[in-house]
Design goal:
The complex is a heterodimer of chains A (419) and B (302). Chain A has 19 helices and 14 strands. In chain A, strands 7, 8, 9, 10, 11, 13 and 14 form a 7-stranded mixed beta sheet that branches. A 5-stranded mixed beta sheet of chain A has the order 2-1-3-12-6, with helices on both faces. In chain A, a hairpin with a 2-residue loop joins strand 4 and strand 5. Chain A has 419 residues and is of the alpha/beta class. Chain B is an all-alpha fold. Chain B has 13 helices and no strands. In chain B, helix 1 crosses helix 13, helix 3 runs antiparallel to helix 10 and helix 10 runs antiparallel to helix 13. The radius of gyration of chain B is 24 Å and the shape is globular. The chains are: A alpha/beta (419), B mainly alpha (302). At the A-B interface, helix 1, helix 3, helix 4, helix 9 and helix 18 of A face helix 12 of B. Chain B: One of its GO terms (biological process) is transmembrane transport. Chain B: Its main location: membrane. Chain B: One of its GO terms (cellular component) is plasma membrane. Chain B: This is Sugar ABC transporter permease.
Chain lengths: 419, 302
């Protein structure tokens, strides 16, 4: 056990970077541009589950003529792998990033891509682009937009006499009516929604994580009121908990373990294949008079490492792939998984997004999409999620829990803005 | 003259590479971690002088309710796992030791789980045995008696997740400690039992209490010491049972998991994480020394 612990921690830290270096040095990667004799650029992607995605990105890399781009497809905890690799010289030149995070930008780990994005800046989904901008500079190019939404099974709701919920109160009541010995009304993840919901209930109450003045945006009684209703879902035993797969996988919904599930747009093709037309999609419902429907959106971005020895070449490559080659962007978004292309013009052109629940989802993302702000740091997220867990599961007092989080978040915001 | 020199040469030829490895991969990182703990080292392992914060990280860690809470989790976990493993492994050893037939078979059966990875075992526990839906093994069995399905890892009241965490570790490590106790039992001279029988000691509890148990003292001390240190280093099963892509719940978060998220999380707060690691290492060292002195480890038997 002792050995395993040490190994794991080493592997998660510097060991990963070392291994990455060795792997690259050994040339175990593939996807090199066959005809190119230009400089070598290392590009990293996290492992997508969809078949064909890896082959596709290697095909894009091989089509680039000005450099020899080698693609690494990295399974496992990708965010930690890149975070560790960026501390070393053996990391990637170009990498896919769930961010970049403010700490990575402030730490000088990524290259300014403003001039690359500027000509087409307005064509990007603005909610997805906003968290990639710091001090008016763009630090990552959104690749595709992903969103989360509420799936509901039409037939089950009809049988129980429940209408698709338009308010949080209706969601709470409906989930209770839909729960029975065999199935539950709602699946928000095995932790009761602590991890996935994030700021969604706050947005549904008309609030935000960080307000326009750069302070905690949920120092408001409406926040506690809304979170009390999420607690109600748990207390009513309306939530499915402990399913074999978590919220991101539609298995529980398809298997009939739950009548409604919070999941991602990526799950839509699988659900459609299993249930045909017997499902619909909704935003997280609004709560209170100042509330509004809420749909979290996020975007993996392409970034250039500041430790790259070929920054100019790497920038030219990301411009070519994520700004110029719109055909590849469209292919990447829709031919393997199911995502909204990050460019509005491409999303409008996509056949797959024009009708049925997919078209509803795109409309919801456009009308109600919000992204976690760049200023919402990991420390903020942890403090908020811990409080959310105590509120939902332990029935802790939401007012006092949120007061503590507001204090912590304001102190953290002050810290990061000072840098 | 050449003899001792040659022996020295061979000594260093064999020990040298390991000593270098130990220094390079254990002591240098340890020293570097102590160094980092005095700096505001976000996203860097080579902070500049401007980032020097002195004991600031230590102050922050010691006033961090989550870190202190993780130490509380450790204490609770230790309170469960140490006595439970001790009793179970001792009971298994006593039973296996009494077997006249197939002793080697049962010894292997109980020892085999030790060879299983904590990660694999945790995943089996999480997905097959203690998942929260009606077709999980535990819920199926309870369903036969009309019980509702239980979300073992998601319910904090009652905290069923402890049952999952403790049983997986018990299954994995009881066999190893059983072997230690077996070795201890086999070192007890049979003449002692014969003498006890002659003196009128009844076999069973009386013999165990007044003869076997005192004779196992040295083994018991080593076992308890190892169990406590292992409990401090708990990571794998906690992480694999309770974490998901979005994080880790605030309950049942032992110190190593908390430090893993602090230092190697996306924030990469390596300074703060290092301070926590140093504090934890000191706590383990002090607890081990105190425990060893208390039990008289290493003292000659009187």
């Amino acid at each position: 056990m002792t050995e395993i612990n040490r190994r794991r921690l080493l592997a998660a830290g510097g060991g990963v970077a070392l291994a990455a270096g060795l792997t690259t040095a050994c040339g175990s990667n593939t996807g090199r541009g066959g005809g190119s004799s230009g400089p070598e650029i290392k590009q990293w992607y996290h492992q997508y589950g969809e078949p064909g995605a890896e082959r596709a990105v290697k095909r894009y890399a091989a089509a680039y003529r000005k450099a020899d781009v080698s693609v690494q497809w990295r399974p496992g905890d990708y965010d930690r792998q890149t975070a560790a690799a960026l501390l070393t010289d053996s990391g990637p030149d170009v990498f896919e990033v769930n961010g970049p995070l403010l700490e990575q930008i402030q730490g000088g780990q990524v290259v300014d891509l403003t001039d690359v994005v500027e000509p087409v800046k307005d064509d990007f989904h603005q909610a997805a682009l906003a968290p990639k901008i710091w001090q008016d500079k763009v630090w990552g190019i959104p690749q595709v937009v992903d969103m989360q939404l509420l799936y509901y099974r039409k037939s089950l709701l009809r049988e129980a006499g429940v209408r698709p919920p338009r308010t949080l109160d209706e969601l709470v009541d409906g989930a209770k009516k839909l729960s029975n010995k065999k199935a539950k009304g709602l699946f928000l993840g095995n932790d009761g929604g602590v991890g996935v919901l994030g700021g969604t209930p706050l947005f549904a109450a008309g609030l935000s994580l960080v307000d326009a003045d750069g302070k905690a945006g949920f120092d408001d009684p409406a926040a506690a009121r809304t979170l009390t209703k999420i607690r109600q879902l748990y207390a009513d035993k309306s939530l499915l908990l402990g399913a074999p797969t978590d919220w991101s996988d539609p298995a529980a919904f398809i298997q009939g373990l739950t009548a409604m599930q919070w999941s991602g747009l990526w799950a839509l093709p699988q659900i459609k294949k299993a249930l045909g037309d017997d499902f619909g999609v909704l935003p997280f419902p609004a709560d209170g008079s100042g509330g509004k429907p809420s749909v979290p959106v996020g975007a993996y971005g392409s970034a250039v490492s500041a430790r790259s020895r070929r920054k100019a070449e790497a920038k030219a490559f990301v411009k070519w792939l994520w700004v110029d080659r719109t055909d590849f962007q469209q292919d990447f978004a829709l031919s393997y998984g199911f995502h909204i292309p990050a460019r509005i013009s491409l999303a409008k052109k996509a056949e797959q997004l024009r009708e049925g629940p997919a078209a509803d989802a795109v409309r919801l993302a456009t009308d109600h999409g919000y992204a976690e702000p760049l200023l919402w740091t990991t420390a903020d997220r942890t403090a908020y999620q811990d409080a959310l867990s105590r509120i939902i599961k332990d029935g802790a007092n939401p007012e006092s829990e949120l007061r503590t989080v507001v204090r912590k978040v304001n102190a953290e915001l002050q810290r990061v803005r000072k840098k | 003259m050449l003899g001792p020199q040659r022996r020295n040469l061979w000594f260093w030829a064999f020990v040298g590479p390991f000593a270098v490895g130990l220094g390079l991969f254990t002591y240098v990182p340890l020293a570097w971690s102590v160094y980092l703990s005095f700096f505001d080292a976000h996203n860097t392992v080579s902070p500049s002088g401007a980032d020097f914060v002195g004991l600031g990280n230590y102050g922050a860690m010691l006033s961090d309710a989550s870190f202190l809470g993780s130490l509380g989790t450790f204490l609770l976990f230790t309170a469960f796992i140490v006595p439970a493993t001790y009793v179970l492994s001792l009971a298994l050893a006593l039973m296996v030791n009494r077997l006249r037939f197939a002793q080697a078979f049962f010894r292997s059966v109980f020892f085999l789980p030790t060879a299983c990875s904590y990660v694999v075992a945790a995943v089996i526990w999480k997905l097959s045995i203690f998942n929260g839906v009606r077709f999980g093994l535990a819920n199926t069995v309870l369903g036969w008696f009309g019980a509702d399905q239980t979300a073992w890892l998601s319910t904090t009241d009652p905290p069923w997740y402890w049952l999952v965490i403790v049983t997986v570790r018990l299954w994995l490590q009881a066999g190893f400690y059983m072997i230690l106790f077996l070795a201890g039992l086999q070192r007890i001279p049979p003449q002692l039992y014969e003498a006890a029988a002659v003196d009128g000691a009844r076999p069973g509890w009386q013999t165990f209490r007044h003869l076997t148990f005192p004779q196992l003292r040295a083994t018991s001390v080593a076992v308890v010491l190892l169990l406590v240190i292992n409990a401090f280093q708990a990571f794998d099963e906690f992480y694999n049972l309770l974490s998901d892509a979005r994080g880790y719940p605030p309950y049942a978060r032992p110190p190593l998991v908390y430090l893993y998220y602090t230092a190697l999380g996306r924030d990469q707060n390596l300074g703060l994480g290092s301070a926590g690691a140093v504090i934890l290492a000191l706590i383990i060292a002090v607890a081990t020394v105190v425990q060893a002195r208390w039990f008289g480890l290493g003292r000659k038997e009187e």
